[in-house]
Amino acid sequence: xxxxxxxxxxxxxxxxxxxxxxxxxxxxxxxxxxxxxxxxxxxxxxxxxxxxxxxxxxxxxxxxxxxxxxxxxxxxxxxxxxxxxxxxxxxxxxxxxxxxxxxxxxxxxxxxxxxxxxxxxxxxxxxxxxxxxxxxxxxxxxxxxxxxxxxxxxxxxxxxxxxxxxxxxxxxxxxxxxxxxxxxxxxx
Length: 188
Prior knowledge:
By secondary structure, the protein is mostly beta strands. Helix content is 0%, strand content 53%.
């Protein structure tokens, strides 16, 4: 059995019948009372974000998770379809379990997390940074590089990203999938 000293960022635990991943954690120590361990938890099988506090040494129930590399194929009525690159086995994941689905491109590599107890997919994670081509953007004006003003641009997946004024249609850019923010232009 695991206890609160085993908590780490990214650990998935079972709490009140639901699965949560640890986003942030810490320990509060006071001179008179026993130490307390707190964690900010994000729901894996639900969309809730909660904070939980335990007494130091309390039992927690971690879930064994296996991360596998899959390739995104397509989306249909049943959800998003992915294929294992080694076994060519396909799996369908519902839209709510896909992080940053607006940035998915056909053929893109993703990580699918499986609950080893049930062999069911728990979530799909995109790489932290992706490269995409801008399909539509208002034209930039020469000399607009000094200010931090942003404009909307549509990328090849259909998602809208805020980019600097000097970025134009047809440019290839790098995007942070966690925040949806523009990082830089990429040379081809």
